[in-house]
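Justification of computing resources. Each target in the renewal requires a structure prediction run like the one illustrated here; the chain below, 212 residues long, is used simply to show the kind of job we budget for.
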Amino acid sequence: MRLSSKSLLILTAATVAVGALVWLVVLDQRSEPYSIESRMLTGWQIVHGTPEDPWVMAMQPPAALTSSLLQQVEKKVGRSLVAPPHSALPLVMRTEHEDALQGVFGVTDIDRMARGTFSDASRFEPVCIGHLVDRRDGSSGELFFLAVNSREFNDLRIEIQPDFPEHAGIGIYDASALTPILPIATTDKNFERWWPIKLDQAVDCQAQVLVK
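Resulting structure tokens:
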């Protein structure tokens, strides 16, 4: 049986409406608050990056925090995602160290300053669960992350600002170029493509975080 033009138009409109409704439901689900236990926001450890990490030094949270957030994200998006090889919050990116810091501060120097700044009591206060989409080079990727506030993070970034940048490297170090971000998962294995991240809360934040 052939459909009339009018019937076909109505069917098409109905299909579009249903698709739009499903998409709105998915978006609404993604924007529902996440939950984190308060005890997981302290006791983070200073770790050094391996050659495959885009950072030379980072703060590693309790494993229970990253696994919990990954489960929550996957449940909301309805599919499996890729967790980072090492779940940690970057303090200094490898590129900025190589280009604008290593002439003055080695990794050992930054480690010493970080240990003098952070302690087991240092607390990382959640800002939001963020979401970024990258369509460069014709390949689409998504990143889900936890954005936090950390006074110690800001203090360390300022402390390693070289007094004489011309001695530090060929680049210019910018303490404000990096936001404290804990990557949760991506849709592919390419985590390096996202850094450095400077959070725009109005655009990048997807959901609130409730601390229990």
